[in-house]
Amino acid sequence: MNIIETAIPGPLIIEPRVFGDQRGFFMETWNEAGFKEAGLDLAWVQDNHSRSQKGVLRGLHFQNPGPQGKLVRVTNGAVFDVAVDLRRTSPNFGKWVGVELSAENKRMFWVPEGFAHGFLTLEDDTDFLYKCTAPYAPQSEHTLAWDDPAVGIEWPVSDLDPIISEKDAEGQSLAEVMAFA
Q1: In the prediction, which pLDDT does 157 show?
Q2: CATH code that applies to domain 2-169
Q3: 118 within 8 A of 57, measured Cβ to Cβ
Q4: In this structure, how many other beta carbons lie within 10 angstroms of the beta carbon of residue 145?
Q5: Catalytic: 136?
Q6: How far apart (Å, rounded) are the C-alpha atoms in residues 36 and 48?
Q7: pLDDT > 90: what percent of the chain?
Q8: Would you state the pLDDT for residue 161?
Q9: Helix H or strand E segment including 70
Q10: Scanning 14, 50, 62, 123, which has the fewest C-beta atoms within 10 Å of its C-beta?
Q11: How far lies 85's CA from each of 43, 102, 131, in Å?
């Protein structure tokens, strides 16, 4: 697999080896030894799968306490996926990185603990899968406002009116969130 570092230390773009022929393709999406060799010694406790129509924006979510690391990918459709550094002691606090993930490019994105995470679906019937390093804990879940000008995420929404849940519409600003030490 090919590991691509992002502008912020921590999040990684992962391009798996894909073997294809006239029948279709095969790829490993998780191999403990291979990921360990790449410096990602991870233990998974939960897998999640969501399906969304074009224009759905989910996030920016994080848990504190009980942060989750997430390995995310798309099996149908496409998303613009974002991680925001919420580690107050980080020189990159409040900065974001984004990557397009799609069934076509087969990329994965590693979002480590200490980051808020969210995505915007770019196609109908987008299937988004993610492995988590900690279980979901609703009492510890927080939402960073997807449109906080202090973060300034450049969502590709010029032709979309994002569809947002009530919970996500009440996201807090960077100054208000319960960031990590």
Answers
A1: 81
A2: 2.60.120.10
A3: yes
A4: 21
A5: no
A6: 22
A7: 93
A8: 84
A9: strand 70-76
A10: 50
A11: 22, 23, 19
CA distance 85 to 94: 5
Which of 163, 156, 82, 80 minimizes the C-alpha distance to 115?
82
Candidates 49, 61, 117, 142; catalytic one: 61
Q: What percent of the chain has pLDDT over 70?
A: 99
> DSSP of 87-152, one letter per residue?
BTTSTTTT-EEEEEEETTT--EEEE-TTEEEEEEE-STTEEEEEEESS---GGGEEEB-TT-TTT-
Tell me how many helices (H) and strands (E) the chain has. 2, 13
Q: pLDDT category, 158, cuts 50, 70, 90?
A: confident
72 burial type by CB count under 10 A (0-12 exposed, 13-18 middle, 19+ buried): buried
Distance CA 156, CA 31 (A): 32
**Across the strands, what pairs with 78?**
102
- In tens, the pLDDT along 67-114 reads 999 999 999 999 999 999 999 999 999 999 999 999 999 999 999 999
The ranges assigned to domains in the chain are: 2-169
Choice among 49, 117, 130, 136 that is catalytic? 130
Q: How confident is the model at residue 58 (pLDDT cuts 50, 70, 90)?
A: very high
